[in-house]
Amino acid sequence: MGRLLRFLFLLILSGFGWAQADESAREIPAAFQGEWNSDVASCGTSRNATRLRIGADWIAFHESEGKVEVFASQGARELALIALLQGEGERWQSFRHFRLSEDGQRLSDITYGSSFVRQRCPD
Length: 123
Description:
The protein is mainly beta. The protein has one domain (about 5-120). The chain has one helix spanning about 5-15; strands spanning about 35, 50-55, 60, 65-75, 80-85, 90-100, 105-110, 115-120. It has an eight-stranded antiparallel barrel with strand order 1-2-3-4-5-6-7-8. A hairpin with a 6-residue loop joins strand 7 (about 105-110) and strand 8 (about 115-120).
């Protein structure tokens, strides 16, 4: 991602009260990291297409994965990111917006206005 696009992403989100945790922070907050699935019984497998894994600087869906290029947080429970994903021979940039439940056990993908909820998988 170019420096200008990164700057614009952070500038737009800062206008809505968002902020990158720290300019030197290069890792997605630990509360968001791990495996998430709509069916906890499918955790640790690839049997369910809702599987989502988030690492310190990457994200992986059922059939795509990639490096998180930039992220911003609002409080301890919301995360917005842009990732460069690849899968099935294609590459694209993807924006995502997530919200954690108060207990940190459910992750809602609220990117498109509706809420798709995944459960935290046990370690």
